[in-house]
Amino acid sequence: MLVTWSIVAFLISALCWILGDVLIVGFRRPDRHEHGEFIDLMGDDAYAFYTRVNEPRLRWGALVANYSIPLMLAGLYAHWVLLRGSPVGMAGAVLLGVGFSLSPLAHASFYPLALASERAHTAHQAYVAARAASSGKEDSEGPDPAALEHARRLYRFLMQAWGPAIGLTALGWLLVCIALGSGATAFPRWSLLLTPPVQALPWYALTRLPYPGKPLLDGALFNIVNLVWAIAFLVLMSHNPLT
After folding, report:
1. pLDDT digits over 48-92, tens only?
2. d(Cα 108, Cα 47) in Å, to the nearest integer?
């Protein structure tokens, strides 16, 4: 029973993270025709996603995922029971725990980045207006450098927070795949085809296609595959009980 509740907790957390991704990163890709000058100024189109900020949406996108991480960690109990016969699998479960623990900081970092990007865009618009008022003279004062640098610093922080979280989680899943593929668990070897790393490729291809609600779910790839894996885990467990 504990194993079942553990994977149900994992499933609920995956749903919360999908919702968080939709709210905080589910934005249409910036139009270079509209934001090309701002993108070139900042050096990346990440800032242009947040030229119009809906603060409550972003805040709840950050918090709903953050608050559900204990459920995701609780979901590791079921994985531990599944993988306890494989040292490689148990190492994978530990790495997943570390990666999951680091993920909330990285996810929530989109919130301050969004606010700073909005401020940088406002500074850029003020510069464009001033330049137009001075008949396009190049000696007009440039955008507020403090606003631009603030956004760039937060983007660097976001990347540095995401790197270890994604890297350790990916390595953990890889070890889980090895354990499943080696036949060291109660699940059949082919169950590794349902794990997040293997699912990620076809799901990524699907996000390239048009679908209702696009682009809301494009940023939720990692957690969509977690949800599918949680459902598959429950189905597999019904045929291969874990004790």
Report:
1. 889 888 999 999 999 999 999 999 999 999 999 999 989 999 999
2. 15
Single-letter amino acid, residue 109? S
d(CA 21, CA 15): 10
Spatial contact of 6 and 242, defined as CB atoms under 8 Å apart: no
- 105-to-29, 73, 196, 217, 218 alpha-carbon distances in Å: 24, 15, 21, 21, 20
At residue 163, the pLDDT reads 95
Per-residue pLDDT reduced to its tens digit, 190-228 = 999 999 999 988 887 777 777 666 677 777 888 999 999
Q: What is the pLDDT, as a whole number, of residue 138? A: 55
Return the CA Rg of the chain.
21
Scanning the structure block, which residue is given the tokens 């296609």? 209
Q: Can you read off the two tokens belonging to residue 240?
A: 């291969």
In this structure, the number of other CB atoms found within 10 A of the CB of residue 10 comes to 26
- DSSP assignments along 146-208, one per residue: HHHHHHHHHHHHHHHHHHHHHHHHHHHHHHHHHHHHTT-SSS-GGGGGGSHHHHHHHHHHHHT
CA 78, distance to chain mean position in Å, is 23
Q: What are phi and psi of 212, to 5 degrees?
A: -60, 135
Torsion-angle region of 135 (φ positive above 0: left; ψ -120 to 50: alpha; else: beta): left
CA 111 – CA 154 distance, rounded (Å) = 10
Q: Where are the alpha helices (DSSP H) in 84-144?
A: 87-108, 110-133
Q: Measure the CA–CA gap between 182 and 92, rounded to whole angstroms.
A: 14
